[in-house]
Amino acid sequence: MDPSSSSSGSENARVNSHMRSPFGNQMFEVNVPQGVRSGQAFALIANGQRVMVTCPANARPGQKIRFQLPIKLSSDEIQSIKLNYQKDGWVRCLSTDLTFHWIRSEGEVDGQLKDSRDLTWAFERIAFVRELRSSATVSSKSKVDHSLQLVPAKEASLSTVVPAINNGTSLAQELSRYAAMPFQHKEAWFRQQIAKIQVPWEDGHIKINVRRENLLQDSMEATESITQGDMRKIFRFEFISEPGVDAGGVAREWFQLVSALLFNPDFALWSYSSINQMCMQINPSSGVANDEHLRYFHFTGRLLGKALFDRQIVAGHLVRPLYKHILGWPVTVADLEQLDADTYANLCKLKDLEDVEVSLKM
User: Fold this and answer.
1) Are 69 and 92 in contact (CB under 8 A)?
2) Which of 33, 87, 287, 334 has its CA 20 to 30 A from that of 136?
3) Which of residues 233 and 73 earns the better pLDDT score?
4) How far is residue 122's CA from residue 104's CA, in Å, rounded to a whole number?
5) 194-200, Cβ contacts within 8 angstroms, sequence gap of 24 or more
6) How far apart are CA 130 and CA 132, in angstroms?
7) pLDDT single digits (tens) 242-262
C-alpha cells in the first residue's frame, strides 16, 4: 500500500473513520484483496494505524482503489515547522495549539553578547508586535470595537487556521514550504488563496460612481459604505458624465488617482520617511489639518487591501515599520531610523559614552 497524491483510473474508497486533522488528509492507494466484494469492508494498516476501508462500487479484486486518512503529526514534528525570513534574527515557530510564535534566533544576526557592557544595550534585541483585539460593544452586538496595542514579540501569537480557506485546516505546512521559495511561487500561492474567498461576478458585484472633480470625497464615502463581506466582490468604477465600460482601465485609473491624492503630503495624512523620500509614514499632525483624518486612514487601509486583492498598483509606498505592523512582524529599535533618524542617531551615540550609568539616566 503506497501513499499517492494522484492516481488516474482508480476508484475512491470510503474509510470508516470519524477522525479529522487540522493538517488535512493524505491520499493512499491499495489493491482490493481477493474475495472482497463491492460494499464490503476490509482491514489494513495505513500510516501506522489499523483502518477499515469499504470497497467502492464497480471495484474488483486486484484493482487499485484510493482512500484518504487524516494527517497526524507528533508534537516534535509540529514544533519543527518554522518560518525563517532571515530578518532581524526572529523566526516564526509552530506550537501544538497550531499558532505561530516568534522566537529569537540568537547568533544569526547579532551574534552572542561579548561582554557585560553589551548587556546594557540589550534593548536593541527587544522587539514588539502589534496585537489587534476585537470586542462587541455593550450598546450594539453587531458593532465591534477594535483596540491596538504592542506586546513583546515572544508573547505574540498568530493562528494558522483560516476558516474560509482550506476548509479550516492549518496553513502552517504550506506557509513553511512556500516561505523558502522564490517570490513568483509565493505570489502564485497567495493568488490561489485569494481566489478561494473572492465572490464570483454572478453572485454579486459593486458599482462605484464618482465625480472626477470631487474624486477623493466621493470615493471615500462610497468605499466606507461597503460592508466587510462585499469588499471581496468585484468592483466596477464609473466617472459620472464620462460614459464608458470598465474593462479594467477605469479601475486602474481610479486606484492610481485616489492613492496619489491620499499620499500627497499636502493632504497631510502622510509625510516622507526621514531617510527615504520614496516612502511614507503617518503624519503625527494629521488631525490638525483634517478633522476626518481617521476616516481617511480607514479608507486608505481599505484601498490598499482591495488593491492587493485585485492586483492593482497604488501610488504610495510605506515605511518598513508599517509593513511590519500589517504583517505582524517584530518591530525593533532599528526601525525608528525610518521614522526619526535624529532620535535614532542620538540613541546610538549613547553607547559611545564612557559612563553608561549616566547615559541610561539621560
Assistant:
1) no
2) 287
3) 233
4) 13
5) 194/309, 196/164, 196/165, 196/166, 197/164, 197/165, 197/232, 198/232, 198/233, 198/234, 198/309, 199/230, 199/232, 199/233, 199/234
6) 7
7) 876 667 789 999 999 999 999
Query: CB-based contacts of 215: which residues, under 8 Å, 6+ apart?
Result: 257, 258, 261
State the DSSP string of 254-278.
HHHHHHHHHT-GGGSSEEE-SS-TT
Q: What is the DSSP letter of 77?
A: H
Q: What is the pTM of this model?
A: 0.76
* Tally of residues, the chain: 362
Identity at 275, one-letter amino acid code: I
The cell 503625527 sits on which residue?
284
Alpha-carbon distance of 249 to 136, in angstroms, equals 40
- Residue 49's pLDDT is 72
Mean pLDDT in residue range 5-19: 55
Confidence of residue 110 (pLDDT cuts 50, 70, 90): very low
Q: How many CB atoms lie within 10 A of CB 33?
A: 14
Q: Say which amino acid occupies 87.
A: K
Q: What's the CA gap between 69 and 25, in Å, rounded? A: 5
